[in-house]
Write a structure and sequence with these properties.
The complex is a heterodimer of chains A (154) and B (496).
Chain A lengths: L7 H14 L7 H12 L4 H11 L3 H10 L11 E6 L2 H5 L2 H12 L6 E6 L11 E3 L2 E3 L4 H6 L2 H4 L1
Parallel strand pairs in A: 1-2
Antiparallel strand pairs in A: 1-3, 3-4
Helix pairs in contact in A: 1-3, 2-3
Chain B lengths: L5 H11 L8 E5 L2 H4 L3 H12 L4 E5 L11 E2 L8 H8 L17 H6 L4 H7 L3 H11 L11 H9 L6 E6 L8 H8 L1 H15 L3 E6 L4 H16 L15 E6 L9 H8 L23 E5 H13 L1 H5 L9 E8 L5 E6 L4 H8 L8 E6 L5 E3 L24 E6 L4 H15 L5 H16 L7 H17 L3 H4 L3 H9 L7
Parallel strand pairs in B: 1-2, 4-5, 4-7, 5-6, 8-12
Antiparallel strand pairs in B: 1-3, 8-9, 10-11, 10-12
Helix pairs in contact in B: 6-10, 6-13, 7-8, 7-10, 9-10, 9-11, 10-13, 16-17, 16-20, 17-18, 18-20
The chains are: A alpha+beta (154), B alpha/beta (496).
The complex binds flavin mononucleotide, iron/sulfur cluster and FE2/S2 (inorganic) cluster (FES).
The site of FE2/S2 (inorganic) cluster has 12 residues of chain A, from helix 5.
């Protein structure tokens, strides 16, 4: 892995941040990964290598863990993200239409929004539910989703 | 040294917390559910209008999500009869206090009996606490209904010190009960975990919270700090020689994460996959220490059992299945939300009296127990809500997710949906689940439009039974259930 994608200074700063926040223990792996993802919006590869040194967990195992958790991501995120729940309860309330509408609006070249289909957002009592840039919206309508198009323009 | 009296110490804490504010209260219910439909905005409105004259408090969601965002305490705003029926038809035991007390007010929590279960536990021996819980007959509410006292006793009889893990993953589609409990009454969750730790001889509690449950996490965090400040968590709890460290841990997603050995792997920074058994977690789990994993709802029952006694607990439910169960009600019904019922009540009563369904003939079926279970036809709604298998075959109550399916929903499609979910969530560690679960989906999809499916159904039945029998963890062991339930309940009716 090429660590030179960022400057040596950035790497050193990152390392001292890690030392400040986390003990050298395998149990700190998930908390540390959450912390990195919070800082960068995703998990840049160079951070994983440094994390592996600091925690004393082989890099291969850090990767193994990272790729097995759906909440952790190695990819640079899109500017906006909309997750449409298509679980059983949301289907009963028309989530398929919401998904189709979202795909129609956002799933095209140059769109700054990525659309995901998720199996449940654990608010089934206010179905249909979507998650827009980390904010839950219950009793969702197509109109709400269409209004989100506004941010595509800025 | 003078006699240590934990109850006296609790009373002293309570007395110090007395409030001077005697104004009328207005209660704004905010949970993950209502926040998603404008409850915070509602709170702002109420504050703008009433903050001079009233005490405005944020409480958890009462469970009546269908009429959220709810505000109570304002005389001028009558509670609708629909809300009242929904609440009155329930037996509210673990939900007691939710929607009535401010979620972050430890004084109010103590006023309704909070931390008295802990104080009573600390006044007797660990073994006596386990005896009391054993006497109540309390079983785990995470889906497997394992006797709580038996698990605790097993962990406490090992050589090294046990660890208590609170399973607040709640990653099964259709559920929102543990979130409601944590958001509405976080102190009860903490109190239950403390009693569990004391009973098992443990000094360490880890609360594992679903990565997406931000509100639950932050409320637990606040509640935990308050407990620490008052000496309810930490060194010498309530003046006794019981000391305990409680920490929160944020999960990282996926259904299988809630499986207890996977949860332990996650805590240890390992891949998201289950472990082989034996050894069982109670023998060797987290850091190879004996580990007790309990569900949030299970632990919320514990303080009530200690404080009000096992008899009160057993006064609800049946002889073999004492107590109540939380049901997450969703889908095609008017009163969608969280309800608490005594074991033994029929599904029909739940759907009609609580869920507000007028005519069950408007349904094509009811999915009970999530993707590890299956769909029941409306002819089977007289079955009772009980732990484990409820139709004698493959439909299980599980953690209590109930989704009503409208006439427009084809149970065959819904079966594919559930089977697909299991296939997608397979962690891939063992072959029967990794290969078998997707194969069930492929055959179901291929057979969708064929007129004679009997051949496919025979193959599917064998495949599903093999997947169930040969898989390593509970996910694969139940991955065939949606299909098998369909075959049991629907295929004959539809002439297949
Ligand atoms: C695939 C799978 C997912 C599970 N998810 C959860 C969960 O989200 N929450 C939970 O408490 N138990 C879950 N369980 C059950 C746990 O393994 C464990 O039995 C439970 O937490 C024990 O607590 P209890 O005895 O208090 O019910 C799951 C089991 C399986 C097989
Ligand atoms: S049964 Fe499925 S989820 Fe469980 S260990 Fe095997 S592959 Fe993983
Ligand atoms: S099914 Fe959509 S939130 Fe649960």
């Amino acid at each position: 892995m090429d660590l030179n994608v960022v400057s040596k200074e950035t790497r050193l700063n990152f390392r001292s941040d890690l030392i400040g926040h986390f003990q050298r223990s395998r149990e700190e792996l998930l908390p540390a990964l959450h912390w990195v993802q919070e800082e960068y919006g995703y998990l840049p590869e160079w951070t994983l290598e440094i994390l592996s040194w600091h925690l004393g967990v082989p890099a291969s195992e850090v990767y193994g863990a990272v790729t097995s958790y759906p909440e952790l991501s190695l990819a640079v995120p899109q500017t906006h993200k909309i997750s449409v729940c298509t679980g059983l309860a949301c289907r009963e309330s028309g989530s398929q239409d919401l998904l189709n509408k979202s795909l129609e609006l956002f799933d095209k070249d140059g769109s700054a929004t990525s659309v995901y289909e998720v199996p449940c957002l654990f608010s089934c009592s206010v179905a249909p539910v979507v998650l827009i840039d980390g904010v839950l919206a219950g009793n969702t309508t197509e109109k709400l989703i269409t209004n989100e198009v506004d941010y595509e323009r800025d | 040294m003078s006699e240590i009296n934990p109850l006296e110490n609790l009373r002293a804490i309570h007395a110090n917390l007395e409030t001077q504010d005697q104004r009328d209260r207005i209660l704004v219910e905010i949970g993950q559910c209502s926040a998603s439909i404008g409850a915070y905005k509602e709170l702002e409105n109420i504050k703008a209008q009433y903050s001079e004259t009233h005490r405005i408090e944020v409480v958890g969601c009462s469970g009546a999500c269908f009429s959220a965002p709810r505000v109570t305490g304002l005389g001028s705003l009558e509670i609708s009869s629909m809300d009242q029926d929904f609440l009155d038809s329930q037996t509210r035991y673990v939900l007691g206090g939710i929607g009535d007390i401010a979620w972050d007010d430890i004084r109010q929590y103590i006023s309704i009996g909070g931390f008295q279960g802990l104080a009573k536990a600390l006044s007797v021996t660990s073994e006596e606490v386990i005896e009391i819980v054993s006497d109540s007959g309390l079983r785990g509410r995470g889906g497997a209904y394992f006797p709580v006292a038996m698990k605790w006793r097993s962990a406490s009889s090992q050589k090294s010190d046990p660890v208590v893990l609170v399973n607040a993953e709640e990653g099964e589609p259709g559920l929102f009960k543990d979130r409601h409990l944590i958001e509405g009454i976080p102190f009860r969750v903490i109190e239950g975990a403390l009693i569990a730790a004391f009973a098992c001889g443990s000094e360490e509690v880890l609360i594992y919270v679903n990565a997406e449950a931000d509100l639950a996490y932050s409320r637990l965090d606040v509640a935990l700090q308050k407990c620490q400040n008052l000496g309810l968590v930490g060194k010498n709890v309530l003046g006794t020689d019981f000391s305990v460290d409680v920490r929160l841990f944020k999960g990282a997603g996926g259904y299988v994460c809630g499986e207890e050995s996977t949860l332990i792997n996650t805590l240890e920074g390992r891949r998201r996959e289950p472990r082989l058994r034996p050894p069982f977690p109670t023998e060797s789990g987290f850091r190879n220490q004996p580990t007790v994993v309990n569900n949030v709802e299970t632990l919320c029952n514990v303080p009530l059992v200690l404080n009000f006694g096992p008899e009160k607990f057993k006064s609800n439910g049946t002889k073999d299945a004492p107590g109540t169960k939380l049901l997450s009600l969703s889908g095609n019904m008017p009163c969608r939300g969280l309800a608490e019922v005594p074991f033994g009540i029929t599904l029909l009563t739940v759907l009609c009296d609580i869920g507000g369904i007028k005519d069950v003939n408007d349904l094509s079926g009811v999915a009970v127990g999530g993707p590890s279970s299956g769909i029941l036809p409306i002819g089977s709604l007289d079955l009772e809500i009980l732990p484990g298998v409820i139709d004698g075959k493959n439909v299980m109550l599980g953690a209590g997710g109930i989704v009503a399916l409208s006439k427009d929903t084809d149970p065959y499609e819904a079966t594919i949906h559930l089977s697909k979910y299991n296939a997608a969530e397979s962690c891939g560690k063992c072959t029967p689940c990794r290969e078998g679960a997707p194969k069930i989906v492929r055959i179901l999809e291929d057979a969708k439009n064929s007129t004679d499916r009997s051949g496919e159904f025979k193959r599917l039945e064998m495949l599903a039974k093999t997947v169930n029998a040969a898989s390593l963890c509970g996910l694969g062991q139940a991955a065939g259930n949606p299909l098998l339930s369909y075959l049991n309940h629907f295929s004959k009716e539809q002439g297949d």
